[in-house]
Amino acid sequence: MDDEHALLIDCGLFQGAETSPEGRAGAGKLAIDFSLDGIKALVATHVHIDHVGRIPYLLAAGFKGPILCSEPSAKLLPIVLEDAFKLGFSRDQKQVERYLKLIEQRIVALPYKQWFTLIDTPRLKARIRLQRAGHILGSAYVEVDLHYPERGEKKRIVFSGDLGAPHAPILPAPKAPYKADILVIESTYGDRLHEDRRSRRARLEKVLEHALSNQGTVLIPAFSIGRTQELLYELEDIIHRRALKESAKTQPGASKSKISKASALDWASLPIILDSPLASRFTAVYRELDQFWDAEAKSRLAKGRNPLVFRNLLTVDSHQVHLAMVNRLTQTARPAIVIAGNGMCSSGRIVNYLKAMLGDTRHDVLFVGYQAEGTSGRQIQRFGPRSGYVELDGQRYDIRAQVHTIGGYSAHADQAGLMRFITGMRKWPNEIRIVHGEDQAKSRLALVVRRSYGEEVQALNIIIPA
Ligand SMILES: [Zn+2]
């Protein structure tokens, strides 16, 4: 902000591939490699690990300032950091508790849409405001107002954080800021357009129907925050609509319809198994904070439905129950849907399911998220359809299960969404820094931005930091 004051926006773990939005980073890039001098505060835009994963290292390096985030993020962040601490530092319960206490003392929960003064000196006045970003629960973009009274200079910088897709389930779409002089924007899907939600949901339903028709299990590898809750929300809706259809059929006087193979599936009692203690904790917070849901989700709630705690949903907590569940589903011929982490199959409970089920044609694997190069998920995605194999924990497993991919279940805005964020502003920025994406995504976004500025004849400086 000036020579003496700096603000840090996010402090995440670097990714193996920058585009794996939520994967765990490999070791070796954990150290804080920048100076902490003058950093007055950290703003956490949202709690994905690539945005907050290095907070433990930041604290260890001596950072003394507050961690500013939205109110929902303030509830989610300790859960994320507890997990990160256990993986990276220690599982000793006393240490974990001491650490969490420290974290909770540092967190300052800011309500959305309200200015918060950071610095107020004769030379610099700085304030920040969080706005909803629609990416995951608690996600925010950050408006920073800087005022230098001596120079008579004022500017507004906007940091997008990760922006949500407009038709994502549960959360409302982000609204463009009023204005920005400088915009720092993500570009994960800067070169892509998403499939619309209705057709995606229809495809999900079709894949599930097909997959479950042969009495097997559908494995869905998913990350704990965001995608898992979106999936549960869509599954509840499919089951709800199916149940309505079934009851209409059994009404007296209803015409007798032919029972197809697909409708022989009993959706009403189809178990949906959430096998991830971490995902269950996040889902509980999503449930608790329903005031942050969008209009559609709230109206379902008002009608007595409960999109994130429905009758078919079973959560598996302990490791013992997890192993028993793997056994039971492998041995019985009862259809089920399992959601387990991690999303790229590189570790976590999903691996036990894969080992037990990949060799059996009755089962299916459904990918709903990006699979980074070098992960087991990518191998299954690539070699599964040609009866290949995958290596898990150093052992070879033949893939006889069917493999499907449904794209677009991602809580990131596509190119159109990113453009709306920029061109929806009353006053367009004259400097845009494009970050957080693969090279091609960045350059495609830059191209499209230049084109629309050209039409508006407004001066623009685009920077793609190396
Ligand atoms: Zn994110």
UniProtKB/TrEMBL annotation:
SUPFAM superfamilies: Metallo-hydrolase/oxidoreductase (SSF56281). SMART domains: Beta-Casp, Lactamase_B. InterPro entries: Beta_Casp, MBL, Metallo-B-lactamas, RibonucZ/Hydroxyglut_hydro, RMMBL. Residues 228-380 form the Beta-Casp domain. Keywords: Hydrolase. PANTHER family: CLEAVAGE AND POLYADENYLATION SPECIFICITY FACTOR FAMILY MEMBER, INTEGRATOR COMPLEX SUBUNIT 11. This is Metallo-beta-lactamase family protein.
